[in-house]
Hints:
alpha/beta
Amino acid sequence: MKLQKLLEYLHPIHPFMGEDPEITSIENDNRKVKKGSLFICIKGYTVDGHDFAASAVTNGAVAILAERPLDLDVPVIVVTDTTRAMAVLANVFYGQPTKQLHLIGITGTNGKTTTSHLIEKIFADAGKKTGLIGTMYTKIADETFETKNTTPESLTLQKTFKQMVDAGVGLAVMEVSSHALDLGRVHGCEYNVAVFTNLTQDHLDYHKTMEEYKRSKSLLFAQLGNTYDYNNPKFAVLNADDPASEMYRRSTAAHVITYGIDQKADLQAKNIQMTPRGTNFDLIIDNDIYPIQMQLIGKFSVYNVLASISAAIVSGIGIKDVIHSIEDVEGVAGRFELVNADQDFTVIVDYAHTPDSLENVLKTIQHFAKKRVFVIVGCGGDRDRTKRPLMAKIACRMATDPIFTSDNPRSEDPLAILKEMEAGVQGETYQVIPDRKEAIYTAVNQAAAGDVILIAGKGHETYQTIGNVVHDFDDRLVAREAIEGR
């Protein structure tokens, strides 16, 4: 695509009238630049792309997009906000790919990963070629790729959607983080369905207040559009039991579909029964009752399933096909995942890393726990510090044997993080074992028949970040080794 044609989509007051080279790629990493690239200078948290513009030219960039004039031998287009402009240019360069996809976005504090996987399975079972973007990985048809962020930046995102279109994908489902919404990473994405799971405390290191956190998530529903197309309807799927849904209902012009357990909703779960092997409930839609027997466990799983069913139904999948898929699901990696090595006690690994998610998982365990409940829990470094004492309080209140340990301490002192957790439980009984492997081994060696061990916080992660070093570490593998070594 010619540079001048690409820049037309920015609609500047003063159009760029310089050279018009052919643009063969768009990059914001100078190391990826090749002959024919447009290099976009992005001011990051640690580096400024403007400092690498000259290097990009050396590597073959034929034009630079920047926020200030640069003395270079190629055209330099100056804009007010390169991050915002990047979303526009990426969307255009890759042919506005989401217009060719049925796109479902999921936002919320907890449940995004499970809900996205449930939706993806429903559509795959219906014979659709699918794509998925989320915390665990990116999936394009039958191929999976590693991912760095829950929601990639706009340039990576649009390129990924183009790859999906080229692979024949018709349905894409993605987790949409509050950071991504606030930073404009999803600008240019045309969503057909937006799903809200729940809102509880998280990411206050970034958003500062719960009101700002809530507001950022409302952007997904506002971005569903403001018109009505019979052939391309837009839907907001909202959790009727979460008070934040009222803001999101008012934020969108799209059709609103609600789901819930306690409050009246379009899709409602009644008569919930939980066992260590699964959960049964009645799904009520328009006075019709559909009994569901699923292998997923817990009330939080019911919410995730309701959200998934709602998104699938408004997307045209029949209710019987949806239920068949849901009942077939065994689980999602690192989400209430059982570690079974023929031991006579239960070991569960879960991604619970917020106060609400930890409480939900422990509530579920209390439904079937007959003896002691161990919980191994820590808090990540360089993240919301206010939740540390809260996590500790929940662990001490809802488990018989709390063990505080390291999560991903990152640049923080692990002992300092643990001290902040302990500040919330003075006078309570707990153990502090900074080494996560030792903490898991301790719980496994102390457990007796009928006990339950919850290893919380890291779930599917296969690493632990200490300082600037990323170590191999998988809670599931460590737990299995500990069990087999008893």
